[in-house]
Amino acid sequence: MQLRRGDVLDGAMAILDEFGLADLTMRRLASSLDVQPGALYWHFPNKQTLLGALADKILEDVDAPVDTRTWDGEFLELAHRLRLALLAHRDGAELVSATYASRMTNARVRESFATAGRRSGLSREHAELASYSLLYYVLGHTVDEQSRAQMESAGALTRAALSPDAPHSPIAAYDEDLLDGDPVIRFDFGLSLFIDGIRARLKETTHHP
Amino acid sequence: MQLRRGDVLDGAMAILDEFGLADLTMRRLASSLDVQPGALYWHFPNKQTLLGALADKILEDVDAPVDTRTWDGEFLELAHRLRLALLAHRDGAELVSATYASRMTNARVRESFATAGRRSGLSREHAELASYSLLYYVLGHTVDEQSRAQMESAGALTRAALSPDAPHSPIAAYDEDLLDGDPVIRFDFGLSLFIDGIRARLKETTHHP
After folding, report:
1. Phi and psi (nearest 5°) for A71?
2. Where are the alpha helices (DSSP H) in chain A?
3. Which domains are present in chain B?
4. How far apart are CA A58 and CA A56, in angstroms?
5. Between helices A124-153 and A71-87, what is the axis angle to 10°?
6. Helix B124-153 crosses helix B108-120 at what angle (to 10 degrees)?
């Protein structure tokens, strides 16, 4: 039976979800699909393109049409969708961050931010810039939120990890508050700053045309 | 001669700068210092604490006193310092992002953002929230900026990486504009949205006390 591209992607996503990004290798994927590694390379010339396709799959519903009449509502909806899509797969935020930089994933989410920016009344140039700002904020937030959640559930975030035998450790001052607080409240606060910043810029343009 | 903690850190930073985060292993570090791996563990009980100490070293000058009288100038100065500190070492942004989530690095930079937020007139709670927003934005921006720059210099960002043999590839729509534009202009635009957002919030508090 011929190996289909979708089968490879499904297999890769299953490894990602169960074992995480570090364990997602072409060798392991081939073995889990019971094929020779060469069979994968017909669909994906290298691991980067496979990760790009996984990122596309993780993001595929984020830029669906938004049912709101306001530009700020559109930003909020898109940003929340993006956060949830990234959190829905183990290491999803890290995977998308890494592949975004590699150009191996599409830019539809960022472009949907830019479209919302245009709807707000921003110039094309500012809407593009704002789309990057929002994307970077959501990625930065989600990478941290997800790795903290995963480490917490793995029990790695304990003081025991700090050796009492290391006499000159400056690490005593690590962040006590890091795990406190609701990540959604934190996420929304940043979004509201971002949107208020756009609103201020629109007013400026109106007052000094 | 006894191996000092500072020697271990210097050796680790040298490997990071020359070969990158993926090649920074305890085994390789021990070998480069000409010691047995056990000698490292006296100073750093595991790799995570070593990475935390490296992150602290990368960030050590970021929160030095800022020579400005305005809170927005303080935010800008701190954010720019953070960006430059992260870009100064290969994979620096990725290393700090990862260790920040692990609680193995200190929180001084975030706290300096929170202090600037308090100076602006934000409540303690909002200043804390804003400090996370700014930190996440800077990390998200810098991780992407740095990996793109590193991939570009390695020649990895070429269309040749996309196989012409993969018939149903949806990757055709990857981001053409991704490498265009000045990253500093992009970075500053996001900072200005962030600062305008804080300013709007301060006005709100003043008008509706």
Report:
1. -65, -35
2. 5-19, 26-33, 37-41, 47-58, 71-87, 92-101, 108-120, 124-153, 183-207
3. 1-45 (1.10.10.60), 60-157+169-207 (1.10.357.10)
4. 5
5. 30
6. 130
CA distance A179 to A175: 9
- Cα–Cα distance measured from residue B203 to residue A139, given in angstroms and rounded to the nearest whole number: 29
Predicted ipTM > 0.95 = no
In chain B, positions 168-187, which contact chain A (CB-CB < 8 Å)?
A: 168-171, 173-175, 177-179, 185-186
Phi, psi (deg, nearest 5) at residue A105: -115, 160
- Taking the alpha carbons at both ends of chain B, their separation in whole angstroms is 65
B151 at A interface, C-beta within 8 A:
yes
| A170 with B106: Cβ contact below 8 A | yes
B74/B34 Cα distance (integer angstroms): 44
- How many angstroms separate the CA of residue A131 from the nearest CA in chain B? 9
A50-90 pLDDT tens trace: 999 999 999 999 999 999 889 999 999 999 999 999 999 99
Handedness of CA B159, B165, B166, B168 (dihedral sign): positive
Entry pTM: 0.88
